[in-house]
Task: inverse folding
């Protein structure tokens, strides 16, 4: 995917000292249900939750770009804010600019300056470092303006820059935060619930389709609440930034909002995938796209509390700075869809090249013709089939991970040796004491207990062979570099 960076716009130093706050809502749906009616319950006693949609309050406010001057202090060749910059709309698309000069300061040195910002929101904080500023010449010798594009991850912040070597008489004569070009085309959509999971979305709003956008936000909000109910993870609010400029697709990174990872979620979607998402939201179809379904399911497993599922079944290696979670994420989301009566009739939209799929949660993997050589999809296909064979309530219990979890149990270690024997010569170098391998085996052990009611060495190989097969095991172990 291409990174489509929004153009920058910098205000003059005389910019007003207050940031404009978004104006009144373009649309809002009032909460009409009685407070005595539970927001989440199982009113028809079928094991799936029912959500009172009338208690989801959806509002949409346009961002009205404004800016302000920022007071700074200089220590050596480092610039820092003189205090906390406040009253910034969350997820606003801004430019932080610095006017700097000094003997020996060059454009190349200015381009190497990094800006570290500590954001605050509701008592939580996160830190972001921005590199490669746009550098513009300013009036005078050895004088430049540094522009850093940011999507503000809080409602207040402080910042500091890295020091610059070989520069003397360094000065910062001004600093501002100002709107990026086009930032006035964005809206903040909030879906608030009485004590449940909420959404805060920053997105383009290309057209007057408030009712469809409201339905879209409610569906995503219900999925978040179903994931929360199933996994036991409570994020409070998930922040979603559409048109993210800094990645090749979409990602979930809860620590982007709260570095303690005990509250709040964060999802970013790049420009190309945002186009797809916004276009589908505009149609009013009763659907959830694979992209947001997938990333939201990540949010309730990686970078969150409690960690009981990942701690016992998270067999994915720590690769490229992330726990991948890809083998288990999609089925977690599909299980959450069936866990909520309001969502069971929703179509899951999956796009594979020019092919479009609109299928229900229990049939989507039957229709996607993905190659066996893709270990993540292959494993997920087998996992979804378990739900269709034994009942999706078994997968609910698996993802809930409420009991009988320990990957280091004597029973699981016995199954680890059994699985190695089942794989055969391909696994001759497999370390049966490897933590990730034990978690991988523990997934099969737990699923067998849920589906067959027991787990022992005599039946374990039969269960794995019947429901996953040797090729699936070899593909996954190879991809995880365990064999």
Result:
């Amino acid at each position: 995917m291409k990174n489509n960076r929004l153009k920058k716009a910098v205000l003059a130093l005389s910019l007003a000292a207050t940031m404009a706050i978004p104006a009144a809502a373009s649309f809002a749906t009032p909460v009409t249900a009685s407070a005595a009616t539970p927001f989440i319950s199982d009113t028809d006693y079928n094991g799936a939750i029912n959500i009172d949609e009338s208690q989801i309050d959806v509002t949409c406010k346009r961002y009205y770009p404004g800016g302000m001057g920022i007071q700074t202090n200089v220590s050596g060749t480092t610039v820092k804010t003189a205090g906390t910059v406040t009253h910034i709309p969350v997820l606003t698309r801004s430019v932080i600019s610095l006017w700097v000069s000094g003997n020996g300061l060059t454009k190349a040195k200015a381009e190497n300056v990094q800006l570290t910002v500590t954001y605050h929101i509701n008592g939580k904080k996160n830190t972001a470092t921005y590199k490669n500023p746009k550098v513009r010449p300013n009036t005078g010798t050895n004088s430049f303006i540094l522009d850093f594009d940011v999507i503000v991850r809080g409602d207040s912040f402080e910042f500091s820059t890295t020091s610059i070597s070989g520069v003397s008489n360094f000065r910062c004569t001004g600093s501002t935060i100002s709107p990026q070009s086009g930032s006035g085309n964005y809206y903040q959509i909030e879906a608030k619930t009485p004590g449940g999971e909420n959404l805060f979305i920053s997105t383009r709003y290309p057209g007057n389709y408030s009712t469809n956008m409201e339905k879209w936000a409610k569906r995503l909000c219900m999925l978040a609440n179903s994931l929360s109910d199933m996994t036991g993870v409570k994020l409070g609010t998930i922040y979603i930034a559409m048109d993210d400029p800094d990645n090749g697709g979409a990602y979930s990174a809860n620590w982007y909002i709260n570095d303690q990872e005990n509250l709040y979620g964060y999802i970013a979607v790049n420009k190309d995938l945002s186009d797809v998402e916004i276009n589908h939201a505009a149609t009013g179809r009763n659907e959830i796209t694979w992209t947001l379904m997938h990333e939201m399911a990540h949010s309730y497993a990686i970078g969150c509390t409690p960690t009981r599922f990942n701690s016992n079944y998270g067999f994915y290696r720590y690769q490229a700075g992330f726990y991948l979670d890809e083998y288990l994420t999609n089925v977690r989301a599909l299980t959450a869809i069936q866990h909520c009566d309001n969502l069971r009739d929703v179509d899951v939209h999956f796009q594979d090249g020019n092919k479009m799929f609109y299928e229900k949660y229990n049939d989507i993997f039957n229709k996607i013709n993905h190659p066996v050589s893709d270990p993540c999809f292959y494993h997920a296909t087998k996992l979804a089939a378990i739900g269709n064979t034994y009942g999706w309530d078994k997968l609910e219990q698996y993802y809930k991970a409420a009991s009988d979890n320990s990957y280091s149990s004597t029973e699981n270690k016995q199954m680890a040796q059994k699985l190695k024997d089942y794989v055969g010569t391909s696994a001759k170098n497999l370390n049966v004491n490897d933590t990730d391998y034990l978690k991988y085996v523990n997934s099969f052990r737990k699923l067998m207990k849920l589906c067959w009611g027991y787990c022992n060495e005599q039946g374990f190989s039969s269960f794995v062979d019947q429901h996953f097969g040797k090729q699936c095991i070899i593909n996954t172990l190879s991809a995880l570099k365990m064999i």
Notes: The radius of gyration is 25 Å. The chain is about 30% helix and 25% strand. Confidence is low (pLDDT under 50) at residues 1-26.
